[in-house]
Structure prediction request, 200 residues.
Amino acid sequence: MNIAVFVSGSGSNLQAILDEEKRAGLAGGKVILVVSDNPGAYALERSKKAGVKTAVIEPSRFSVREEFDEAVKEILEENDIGLIVLAGFMRILTSRLIDAYRGKIINIHPSLLPAFKGAHGIRDAFDHGVKVTGVSVHFVTEELDGGPIIAQEAVRVGEKDNIEDLEKKIHETEHRLYPEVIKDFVSGKLKIENNRVIRN
Ligand code: GRF
Prediction:
């Protein structure tokens, strides 16, 4: 199965996925394309180093979101993509793309959803003073950070942890969890039933 990873920034999750592909494989899945909306994303350097093709699609070229999504969709179709992995992709997708790839787009979010949705999941949880936060991987629907949850892992906030300590723990958890979910998807183990994800 051909996989596309969507990025906007550092790409540490992308790296974890590529490393796992090299180490143990992704159950037959292959990352063949990295899509970025940001030409300056460090994730693009990581892709080049790993020999993975990149596509930079700058939103400023389009007047409406649907046109951006249409351009992305074309590239995905050309590459016969079966799974879209959002990994720090900071742009909201429209139903133009979500509809065409329903049940085939996954996202990782650095909190235990539905708590602390949005762009600052780690900081918002830290500022709230929670004792436990975590990582969620979910299917993408039109509702921001709201699709069916595939996997979650809790992360404790230590009394002496500062925000950097918490970020480190969250990212380590993400880097372990995301490749595992990808393998489950590629293996056909994930089914959505009444908004619940069943793993068989
Ligand atoms: C991760 O924390 C992810 O949960 C969130 O954005 C961050 C991306 O980090 N959606 P990176 O670009 O993978 O390093």
